[in-house]
Amino acid sequence: MSLHYELRCRECGKTWGNAPRSFCEDCFSPLEVAYDYVSLKKIVRRENLAARYFNMWRYSELLPLPDDFVARSAVGGTPLVASRKLAAKWGLKNLYFKNDAVCFPSLSFKDRVVATALAAARRFNFTTVGCSSTGNLANAVAAQAAQQGFDACVFIPADLEPAKVLNTAVYGARIVRINGNYDHVNRLCAQIADRFQWGLVNVNLRPYYSEGSKTHGYEIAEQLGWALPDNVVVPMAGGSLITKIAKAFRELVMLGWVEAKPVKFFGAQATGCSPISDGVKRNLQRFEPQKPNTIARSLAIGNPADGPYAIKLIRESGGWAEDVSDPQIVDAIKLLAETEGIFTETAGGVTAGVTQKLVGQNRIKPEETTVVCITGNGLKTTDAIAAEFPATEAIAPRLDAFEAYLDAQLGTTAASARA
Ligand SMILES: *Cc1c(COP(=O)(O)O)cnc(C)c1O
Ligand SMILES: [Zn+2]
Known about the structure:
Strand order of the largest sheet: 3-4-12-9-10-11
Largest sheet: 6 strands, mixed
Bound molecules: pyridoxal-5'-phosphate, zinc ion
C-alpha cells in the first residue's frame, strides 16, 4: 500500500487508511483523501511532467492510485480554448473555455472521476462496479468498465434523456431505471453498497472518485502556463467538481508548481434545481434541498452531498453563485456553438449562461483571466434544443432549384453572389 495518502474525516480529522468507505464512523461526516505533501514533493517535480503524454495520468503522483497502477487508457487532456468572439461580445480580455465536452472516452468530465474510482475498485478487488447517475456518470462507468473487464450495474432516474441511456446501454452495462429522482436513486445505492460487495463509484468509492476531478484543475493551471486564473465558473450538481478544482489549485501552490494567488470560485446551477446557488445568494449556513425541475438533467441533484463545502468555498473565495432558467440555458448552448464552435449539453448551457449573468453583474471584470468549465457534450442532450432547429425544406438536385431557393431565402443578395 502507498504511504503518501489515506482517507481522513473532513470534520473530526480521524484517519481511516485506504478502504471502500465514504463516511467517518465516529462523526458521520464525509471522508476525503489526504496526502503527505512533504513526501510528495520528493516523489515528483513539475519538470518530470514534460516527458509525459498530455492526459490526466501525467499527474498520477497527485492521485490516490495503487503503487502497481497501470493506466489502461488516455482519459482527460482536453483543450483550453482561448475565446475570441464571445470574449469580445462580453467585453472580456482573457476568457477561456476548458472543454471537457471532448473528454475521452465518454464525452464528459465524469470520465476523470470514473478513472480514479475504477483504479480503487481494482485495488479493493471488486468485480462489479456501478453508480447512481444523472446520466454522464453512467456513461463513463459503462465505457470504462467495458474496457477494463468489470461488470457494470448503473442506477438512473427512469425519465433520463434517451441519448444518455443509449450511451450507457451500448457498452453492455446493466441499467436499472428507478421511478424517482436522483436523490431517491442515490439513497437506494447507499443501501445497495451496504448489502452487496460492489464498488459504487460515487457511494462507497466516493473519496477516490472525487479526486479524479482535480485533474480538470491541474490541466487548467498547466495550460495557462503554470498559473492560476482570477476566476473559474463551474457547474454544480453534487458540488464536488468545484471543491476539487479548488483542492487542485491549493496543491499546486503547496508543491510550488504555481504562484499563490486569490482565485474566485463561481458556481453555476439551473434555476429549476439550485439548492447551492440559492444557499449562496441567501447566505444560508445549510442549503435547503429542492425537488429538481429543469432540462439540465445532469445537474439535477436536489440534495447535493458536497453542497455545504461548495457554499463555503464560494463564499470564502469572494466568488458568487447564480442560476439560469431553461430558456436561458437553450440560448447559451446556441451562443457558445455559434461563437466558439463548442457544442455543449445543457450543463454547459448553464455554465455559459451563468457566466454571461456574472459579467452583467460586473462580478467578472474585463482584465481578469476567467476560465469557464464546459463539462459535457451537446450530442447527448439534443432533445433540449431540437425545437429550435426545425428541418428545412428539401429541394430538387438542380441548379435552378437551388437558385430559386436562394432567391426565396435571401432575396436580391442571391443575385449578386452569381458569377
Ligand atoms: C456531474 C456533472 C457536473 C457536476 O458535478 P458535481 O461534481 O456533482 O458537482 C457538471 N457537469 C456535468 C456535465 C456533469 O455530468
Ligand atoms: Zn469524523
